């Protein structure tokens, strides 16, 4: 499998507040052929990006320096944009009911699983809340 074309043509918003992790996520996605929007560290910046460009999907850190990304997930879901949560939290503890079944990847991120999950954006079968 040619990993540098697996995500070719997909525009994916990366929302992560830890700079090094944000860069790693962007590098992995770009290396798989994806066009990365961002990365951005806040919900507001992500909302601005989501409203200014057509996205194929998004990768959302749950906790952005104490601010939860759930309002952004709701906004994306309303627009039919699939997303994946990145979290170190137990889903039963922190996730609102509407996102309990949303796709989640645990930190530290397994990049092979990330690429596989993002590739589902093309098929439109990723969970979107």
Q: Detail the poorly predicted runs.
A: 125-129
Global mean pLDDT: 89
How many strands appear in the DSSP assignment? 7
What characterizes the major β-sheet?
A: 5 strands, parallel
Distance between the termini: 30 Å
Order of helices and strands: EHEHEEEHEHEH
Task: Report Rg.
Answer: 13 Å
Helical amount = 25-40%
Keywords:
129 residues, alpha/beta, five-stranded parallel β-sheet, two-stranded antiparallel sheet, 7 strands, disordered C terminus
Can you describe this structure in just a few lines?
This protein is of the alpha/beta class.
Descriptive overview:
It is a single chain. The protein is an alpha/beta fold and 129 residues long. It is 38% helix and 22% strand. It has five helices and seven strands. It has helices spanning 19-31, 43-52, 70-78, 91-94, 111-123, and strands spanning 11-15, 35-40, 57-61, 63-64, 67-68, 83-87, 104-106. It has a five-stranded parallel sheet, sandwiched between helices. α2 runs parallel beside α3. The chain is globular, with a radius of gyration of 13 Å. The protein starts with 10 loop residues before the first strand and ends in a 6-residue tail after the last helix. The model is unreliable at 125-129 (pLDDT under 50).
